[in-house]
Design goal:
CATH class: Alpha Beta
Oligomer: single chain
CATH topology: Rossmann fold
CATH architecture: 3-Layer(aba) Sandwich
Structural class: alpha/beta
Number of strands: 6
Strand order of the largest sheet: 2-1-3-4-5-6
Radius of gyration: 13 Å
Distance between the termini: 22 Å
Number of domains: 1
Length: 117
């Protein structure tokens, strides 16, 4: 899967996703300090699923009308360590193949998906 990971995903998570065979562009490496709009535009241009812990991406898409057809996954999970986050994010992404075209919120109990405008 082609992924764009926002800066707030831990390095352990990026490493685990790459080991799992995903093509991961990590904002912390390729565009450190970039504004959310730039990260979102980059993910769209490269047709990458955007992974984040930042709720602001929902506002960009639903309130400000920014495009994100490759999809966004907002993680709202509470785990004790970066290693646990890496394991859980990798596991969750493998559960579905229909992330594109959706704004998805993943919390400790459920995955909620909403079609993108």
């Amino acid at each position: 899967m082609r992924l764009c990971a926002n800066e707030n995903l831990p390095g352990d998570c990026i490493a685990a996703l790459r080991v799992a065979g995903h093509d991961v562009l990590w904002a912390r490496e390729s565009m450190p300090g970039a504004a959310d709009e730039k990260v979102l535009a980059h993910a769209l241009a490269e047709r990458r699923l955007l992974l984040t812990f930042d709720k602001d991406f929902g506002a960009l898409v639903f309130q400000r009308g920014r495009r994100a057809s490759a999809g966004i996954v907002l993680f709202r999970i509470s785990l004790p360590s970066a290693t646990a986050v890496a394991s859980e994010v990798t596991r969750i992404l493998a559960l579905r193949s229909d992330w594109a075209g959706h704004f998805s919120v993943v919390d400790d109990r459920a995955i909620r998906m909403r079609p993108l405008p």
